[in-house]
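Whiteboard transcription, Tuesday session. T.W. wrote the structure tokens on the left side:
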């Protein structure tokens, strides 16, 4: 039988995984008697967890909503996950939560057992986070948009496009997607009668706007993240399609996630490149690490010219036959 403290953690986990449980179900899942279930529920209540119960044939238990925060109970894996999440939050793509993340991490560490606290401290001391690049977004902007998604309420904001022009939008928000270092909002724009994707770092919410409720629509894709990545790739002005002489599984880890990779056979795949410059396209071709062919190469004169210049530069540095090595 599980020790009491470990069993309470397991009981809390069950309450959070499903809304309603009967005493019989809990007893079976925990391998204890119904009498012990009742005692454990009472222990949780004494710790400050509001556990509601009903009597009768269909009676059972559910974790209610309480005003007081009860003591923190985490198993080893959960504690490490929380510490890692807070440490990442201190240097992530959301601004305004850095100091709060550090303070929260310090409080969590104080509540951990000594052995686990040493593990988390070692991870914090001997791991180094690479400097982040990319725009950060305010935490309150993300939470406001997320709440509007949940409550199905329109939001109003001023939006700055990539060319610097600005416009005012009333949008039905549906999903927030984190792609790399950028946050995106997927929403329905009634004025354009179409789905739109907005970079959250370019959104300036209109304060105290009371948006109207909307009837939710079916998302255009069951996977908003995958659909977003495709949309980003089509938005860049420079594009190219290449056939890489390797499987999609081999190529996928080598390229940024916004590029579209389509399997062709066990030893080949099609890669749809897109960027704001031919230089970036050439860099990604180098990251393939395998032979490739450009489909319809005459359609990409700027890319081909940059590849020629890059090849000549690399040959000169490497001392290729007919080239003078760099001094």
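and on the right, the sequence the group agreed on:
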């Amino acid at each position: 039988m599980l020790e009491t403290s470990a069993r309470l953690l397991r009981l809390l986990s069950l309450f959070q995984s499903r809304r309603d449980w009967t005493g019989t179900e809990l007893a079976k899942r925990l391998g204890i008697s119904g009498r012990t279930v009742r005692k454990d529920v009472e222990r949780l209540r004494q710790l400050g967890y509001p556990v509601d119960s009903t009597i009768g044939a269909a009676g059972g238990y559910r974790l209610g909503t309480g005003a007081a925060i009860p003591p923190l109970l985490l198993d080893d894996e959960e504690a490490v996950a929380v510490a890692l999440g807070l440490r990442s939050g201190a240097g992530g793509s959301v601004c305004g939560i850095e100091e709060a993340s550090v303070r929260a991490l310090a409080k969590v560490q104080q509540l951990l057992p000594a052995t686990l606290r040493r593990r988390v401290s070692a991870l914090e001391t001997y791991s180094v986070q690479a400097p982040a690049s990319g725009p950060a977004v305010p935490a309150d902007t993300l939470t406001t948009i997320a709440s509007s998604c949940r409550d199905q309420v329109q939001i109003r904001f001023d939006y700055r496009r990539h060319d610097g022009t600005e416009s005012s939008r009333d949008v039905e928000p549906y999903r927030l997607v984190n792609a790399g270092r950028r946050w995106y909002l997927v929403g329905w724009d009634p004025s354009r009668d179409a789905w739109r994707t907005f970079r959250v770092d370019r959104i300036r919410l209109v304060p105290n706007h009371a948006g109207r409720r909307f009837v939710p629509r079916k998302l255009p894709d069951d996977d908003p993240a995958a659909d977003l990545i495709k949309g980003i790739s089509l938005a860049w002005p420079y594009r190219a399609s290449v056939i890489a002489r390797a499987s999609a599984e081999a190529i996928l880890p080598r390229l940024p996630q916004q590029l579209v990779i389509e399997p062709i056979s066990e030893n080949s795949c099609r890669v749809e490149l897109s960027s704001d410059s031919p230089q970036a396209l050439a860099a990604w071709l180098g990251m393939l690490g395998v032979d490739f062919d450009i489909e319809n190469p005459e359609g990409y004169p700027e890319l081909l010219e940059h590849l020629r210049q890059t090849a000549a530069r690399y040959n000169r540095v490497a001392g290729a036959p007919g080239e003078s090595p760099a001094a």
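Someone added at the bottom: The chain has four domains: 4-63, 76-126, 137-225, 236-318.
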